[in-house]
Amino acid sequence: MMVDGRLVRGRRSREAILETAVALASVDGLEGLTFGRLAVAAGVSKSGFFTHWPDKEHLQVDVIGRAARQWVDLIVSPALGEPAGVRRVWGLHEWRLRFYAEEVLPGGCFFHTAECDFDDRPGPVRDRLLEAKRSWMGLLVSVITAAAESGELTTDDPELLAFEIDALGGAVVPHTRLLDREPALRRSRAAVLQRLKSLSPVPELLPEE
Amino acid sequence: MMVDGRLVRGRRSREAILETAVALASVDGLEGLTFGRLAVAAGVSKSGFFTHWPDKEHLQVDVIGRAARQWVDLIVSPALGEPAGVRRVWGLHEWRLRFYAEEVLPGGCFFHTAECDFDDRPGPVRDRLLEAKRSWMGLLVSVITAAAESGELTTDDPELLAFEIDALGGAVVPHTRLLDREPALRRSRAAVLQRLKSLSPVPELLPEE
DNA sequence: GATTAAAAAGACCGATCGGTCGGTCTTATT
DNA sequence: AATAAGACCGACCGATCGGTCTTTTTAATC
Q: Measured CA to C1', what is the nucleotide nearest A7?
């Protein structure tokens, strides 16, 4: 079976462009992402983009997809490596904080910036962001529900707890970017940890502090 | 004592422009705010802006000031009308939620959008946003501390609790803009309420639910 | 009523935006 | 070897950006 070298080359540069775009967009937003600056950052010509995407909107949608894959790879998958139950719930939060702490993206969080850009702009881009957020919130709820069913977590409203954890995780972004760095991470960690411990009959499964 | 009608006219249109700008910026961000669209929205000419502000940056700083005044008028001041203690802490959160629920601004929250735009862009605009955020967080901490000292709240880390309340309040914005509206408001309310009740020796001071 | 100054408007400028067009280079097919 | 197709580029387009310059309107002062 032969592979087409032209297509391989195309896919490679396509991926490289998307990776650069996620990093750029985490700083300047998905709308602040321009062909001109992306071309310079990725080391390609401006017009070359239109080989891969018909217009900016399609590029933006693909950039979201790339960012979502990164979120899964660096946060969701590692967390799912934890044993089901309260530790897996905690894992989702902890890996998210690690993602922020290690400054994987120069802008802190792609989705924070992108959602802010497009929350009032209907269209395919917003729809894709909505899908990503629904997926993340749905994962939180299902992991929490599983923990509750296994008896490791006492809650009658998994969606409320999911909202709390997401809120405490998401607030780290503006706090670290604008105010002090370590305190925000420390407080977010402490807040979720104490909350989970207060809801769990087996708090010793969670880290000391 | 005579007043100069020309200056009065200037101040009036200046205020009108700022008010329009806060609403526009709550949707498109402080950077997405352009002279052209602001001129159309405010019903003035583009070049007229430069009578009041030397450049866009100075306008942005003033827009932040106007938004901060609105935040104080509609959230801080009403909350400070509550008796000191746990009820005043709760008031800060409740009035904030009311602000979001009533859709005072078309974009939901000016500061959420503005901070997102400028958290990676050093300069006077970012400094002004930082000042506003510090002021808000400082207020939360001081009101919480006062409640703790009066014995209505049991906490040894007011800054942690302030972070929690701010996070649960701020998360409402992306959730309401992107996902469902009422559930986000309901959950944010429930989360802070249960948290304050769990920390208070006098939970009966707070609303039932 | 003439002069002066603030407010506001109109025409315009260089830069950058998203996007098009014609063409080159590379690689697979025949 | 000839042809076709995908990847990629430089030049360019109309629109909009922040901002300047000049002029007109409005209102106070003399």
A: D6
Which residue is closest to B125 within chain A, CA to CA? Answer: A178
Average of per-residue pLDDT values in chain A: 95
Cβ proximity of B197 and B207 under 8 Å:
no
Parts of chain B with a pLDDT under 70: 1-2, 5-6
Question: How far is A96 from B168, CA to CA, in rounded Å?
Answer: 17
Q: Which nucleotide is nearest to A53 (CA to C1')?
A: C19
Decide if B44 contacts B111 (C-beta within 8 A).
no
Query: Cα–Cα distance between A167 and A144 in angstroms, integer?
Result: 15
Q: Residues B84-127: pLDDT tens digits?
A: 999 999 999 999 999 999 999 999 999 999 999 999 999 999 99
Q: Is the CB of A47 under 7 A from strand C?
A: yes
Dihedrals phi, psi of A65, to nearest 5 degrees: -60, -40
Q: 3-state secondary structure string, A34-46?
A: CHHHHHHHHCCCH
- Please indicate whether, in this complex, the C-beta atoms of A163 and B178 are within 8 angstroms of each other: no
Domains of chain B as residue ranges with CATH:
55-205 (1.10.357.10)
How many angstroms is C1' of C9 away from CA of B42? 14
